[in-house]
Amino acid sequence: MAAVRVDGLEDVWEDGCGDIVYTLARVLDAVEPGRLVGRSVKRVGWTLYVGGEKQDLRLFNEFVVLAVGKAASSMAAMLLKQLEGRPVRGLVVISHGLQPRQSLKPLETIHAAHPIPDTSSQRAGQAILEYAKSCGAGSLVFVLLSGGASSLAVLPAEGVTVEDKAAAAAALMKAGASIEELNTVRKHLSAIKGGWLAKHLRCRTYTLILSDVVGDRLDVIGSGPTVPDPTTYADALNVIRRRKAQVPENVLKHLEAGARGALEETPKPGDPCFKNIRNIIVGSSLDAVRAAASTLRRKGYRTLVLTGMLSGEAREAARLLAAIALEVRRSGLPLRPPAAVVAGGETVVTVRGGGVGGRNQELALALVLHLREMRGFSAASMGTDGVDGPTDAAGAMVTDRTIPNAVEKGLSPEEYLENNDSHTFFKKVGGLIHTGPTGTNVGDITIILIQSR
Question: What pTM does this model have?
């Protein structure tokens, strides 16, 4: 079972935190990328079933695997098992410092930067393009996408540098841009995203996708390199203006040129370059929330799956979740304690303070402030990739003792929230969740447990 550790857990084990830790570990097991790929890709003799379609392996000269993202190595390893004995080539792009847990031979491995791209990300993007161009009619291509792909492999459009793209991404994230908004801009600064990679794939291609995007929009996950792009240069400009993001001049010039028709738009629905490409979601937030719900039911909790599409500002999401928990305690609606409320998705944080934190830690801090008068609860919010913002934590856990413990230490939770300093708060009070890099990514999972009186 996956390893999940919480700072200070030994002091609050009886408050339901043990059930949450166990549930989070089961969630990570359920969304293990190899397991999810194995549901959609199965081999029987010389027949490979991909998303229900049949392919005769003897009809292809070669099989090309292009994997990029936080789950790239595990996804590629499972696919290699299905292609055993056939001629395979390709590459896997993963973050600096990570090492594949399984052998990926004969695939090439490239390490690149996340969440802000650099020259290593550009080398990875160029390598992916070269592999795509080298494929012919006898090739069967598998593009494996997961969260982080947008920064791990980049190839800037003409007139834009990787430094420009990195600065634009950083500015938009700081301004609280959603992943949809961020990737709308990324697609229009790229030579491979927004469907451009499909222009170079002149053979049968399956893109297997592990979604970390709320709503599973294909054009947003990994910035949609093999998907028609419904957004425009004008849309990208509007994102920057709406978020008041300070982006490099080169970025503005490029987008403005595209908006006035001086540059070719990204490939749109109906473009013939997509006729041989099929995009298949192999796993998503729903897999995480379903695994959490089934585990908690077995633990004896009446369980409500609120949504797999939680989004918006972390603080506002916390307000909604707190209102539901308070109603459960007050009236037993929509379910009586012992109760569990589960939500998946991905929120954002508009940074206004100078602190350190992540969206899950901020959500947990805001949530416990709304529940400070309630007794008999525990809650956690965690990124399934094991990373929450620019910190070493995956998220945070809170209980009805969190605020009293903070007050006893002379801390003001409100001040830490106002300064976007949730990580420092939980480091002092306890509750930081640690998993290390999990090798998967289906967004975030939030659990609230309300015990019987």
Answer: 0.92
